[in-house]
Amino acid sequence: MDESGFWNRLDLLARSLFPFAASALLIIIGFAPLRAPEIAPALPLFGMAAVYYWCVFRPDLMPHWAIFLLGLFSDLLGGTLVGSSILAFFALYLAISSQRRFFAHASFFLLWLAFALFALPAFLIMWSLACWNAGAIITPAPLALQYVLTVAVYPMIAWFFGQSQQVILQSGGRG
Predict the structure, then answer these.
(1) Which helix (H) or strand (E) holds 37?
(2) pLDDT tens, 57-82?
(3) Which of 170, 142, 134 minimizes the C-alpha distance to 57?
(4) Domains in the chain: boundaries
(5) Which end of the chain has less neighbouring CB within 10 Å, N or C?
(6) Rounded Cα gap, residues 19 and 61, in angstroms
(7) DSSP secondary structure string, 133-154?
(8) Closest by Cα among 76, 166, 87, 175 to 123
């Protein structure tokens, strides 16, 4: 086997796994232990913002298995009902994929507004499943705050991924 061919394939694999790995890292950061446990239930869901970004800009690098694993990882780290983030992330993916052509040329503000609109049903799915799991109506206040914070941090996540996409993904000839 040609050694340069091996390194080229390894480079391509690393570049194609970057969105998944960076999204997983953001999920870890989002669930890092804090010294303020009272705000932990209302921390932004970085994973949801990451799935949205990559499904809009590079859906080829956010396959179904990656969305599933990111949702599972988010559920396990967050201590939520296993499957709630998975369903929420896939609902977000389905909403985006049906409108991808429109999003490809949309302004940042419109993309941000669309994230706010599409993330709301995803959060409602998570809340509904939490209520079902608890067998009672849970106050939606912490989840509402989490939704607002997730929408608020989206511009920072989009900026980080946009810069990363230019440096890491496009420098290898992929665009």
Answers:
(1) none
(2) 999 999 999 999 999 999 999 888 99
(3) 170
(4) 3-31+43-172
(5) N
(6) 7
(7) HHTSPPPSHHHHHHHHHHHHHH
(8) 87
